[in-house]
Structure to design on (437 residues):
């Protein structure tokens, strides 16, 4: 079974980089760092001169994840280099985080206003909805460099020179060079609004790891764990991010948050943010699964030479099913005054009308935010005019009938079944001419 849109090939730069890293390792020019939590923690402590990682809960998910990577992920040279670098970065930043909390007690003393949280599966339109809300300066939102580098190094001064945007820009540039398709799948930049996924990575938590590496053992383990400690740390990090902004911070303004991980963790999320208001977005599951598989493929092929598209299809069909099943159970227990449902289809047809409904739910006047929202929509449409994310379920061993059959009850509950498309007059004339040719 193959799709009409072929799977994207990774950049030749990946192969070249793998060869260079392998050569440097053979010559002992680049010492290979072991993928071992204890060894990485020792390195982080030596590098920072610190030894307090804060709540040690995160060590367990990190141990399960590193073990799964070693046994299941089939990493190439780039993959191993990126994995050890990522874990070492998290460990350093955990140490820096606790340093900031110990030396600046005012960080954790500041309360957080109840956030507005966008909830939906991966590739369901959460990014567009989140960025529309982020255009409203009455909300706070994470920026890309803050989710990639949430913790400033010791010596940083709030509101002062910050090297993190440049660091995040270099990382983004490297990823785009290794696989240019990633820039089409999820266009962003150092200062663009971004989800708080990186704050969960600080606890070695979340589907982000499953979208990067083949680690089903870690995924199954995490599905049966209580995520509350990861979300408690996320809330602490939001305070740190706000403090680091200095005079730019607006302490009485609610955060607008979103990451697909919330679909699996709504009970934990609501234990940490009990007064949050939630905006659920729903999309045709066949589109969600197909787009998710494409995103995972474009990431996984960088880190492994053995990425299997049919395995990706099977895994993300199951993962999407679990997201939706858990969301529906948790959503049914949330008071209707604290939640609203919107459809991806309606956002496409009339985003402004949908956002007016959202603002009525939030009991806010949308008028001050509309100019910035319109600018964002215009910019996004300009980007998509030349670059569109194309994918096909067939490339992943799936078809629309199978996927829609798995999610029939969900699709019927939220009217997600595809509707016949109307042809305009030009399309009808063109079709008639083809028939007569």
């Amino acid at each position: 079974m193959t799709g009409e849109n072929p799977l994207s090939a990774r950049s030749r730069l990946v192969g070249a980089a793998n060869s260079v890293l392998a050569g440097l390792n053979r010559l002992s020019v680049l010492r290979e760092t072991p993928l071992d939590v204890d060894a990485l923690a020792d390195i982080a402590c030596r590098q920072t001169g610190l030894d307090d990682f804060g709540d040690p809960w995160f060590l367990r998910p990190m141990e399960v994840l590193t073990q799964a990577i070693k046994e299941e992920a089939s990493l190439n040279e780039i993959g191993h280099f990126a994995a050890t670098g990522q874990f070492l970065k998290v460990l350093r930043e955990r140490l820096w985080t606790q340093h900031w909390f110990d030396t600046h007690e005012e960080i954790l003393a500041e309360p957080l206003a109840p956030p507005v949280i966008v909830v939906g599966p991966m590739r369901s339109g959460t990014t567009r909805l989140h960025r529309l809300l982020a255009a409203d300066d009455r909300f706070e939102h994470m920026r890309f460099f803050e989710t990639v580098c949430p913790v400033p190094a010791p010596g940083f001064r709030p509101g002062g020179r910050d090297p993190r945007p440049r660091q995040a820009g270099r990382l983004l540039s490297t990823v785009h060079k290794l696989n240019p398709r990633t820039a089409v799948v999820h266009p962003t930049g150092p200062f663009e609004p971004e989800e708080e996924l990186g704050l969960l990575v600080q606890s070695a938590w979340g589907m982000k790891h499953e979208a990067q590496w083949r680690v089903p053992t870690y995924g199954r383990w995490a599905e049966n764990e209580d995520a509350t400690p990861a979300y408690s740390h996320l809330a602490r990090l939001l305070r740190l991010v706000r403090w680091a902004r200095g005079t730019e911070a607006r302490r009485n303004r609610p955060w607008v948050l979103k990451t697909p991980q919330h679909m699996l963790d709504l009970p934990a999320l609501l234990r940490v943010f009990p007064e949050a208001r939630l905006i659920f977005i729903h999309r045709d599951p066949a589109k969600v699964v197909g787009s998710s598989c494409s995103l995972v493929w474009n990431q996984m092929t960088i880190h492994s030479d053995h990425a299997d598209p049919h395995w990706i299809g099977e895994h993300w069909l199951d993962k999407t099913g679990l997201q939706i099943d858990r969301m529906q159970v948790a959503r049914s227990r949330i008071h209707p005054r604290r939640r609203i449902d919107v459809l991806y289809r309606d956002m496409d047809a009339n985003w402004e009308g949908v956002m007016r409904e959202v603002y009525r739910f939030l009991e806010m006047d949308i008028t001050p935010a509309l100019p910035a929202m319109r600018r964002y929509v215009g910019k996004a449409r300009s980007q998509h005019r030349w670059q569109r994310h194309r994918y096909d379920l067939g490339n992943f061993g799936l078809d629309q009938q199978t996927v829609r059959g798995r999610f029939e009850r969900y699709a019927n509950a939220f009217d997600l079944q595809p509707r016949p498309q109307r042809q305009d007059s030009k399309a009808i004339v063109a079709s008639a001419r083809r028939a007569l040719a």
User: Anything to note?
Assistant: Strands lie at 116-119, 256-258, 277-282, 339-343.
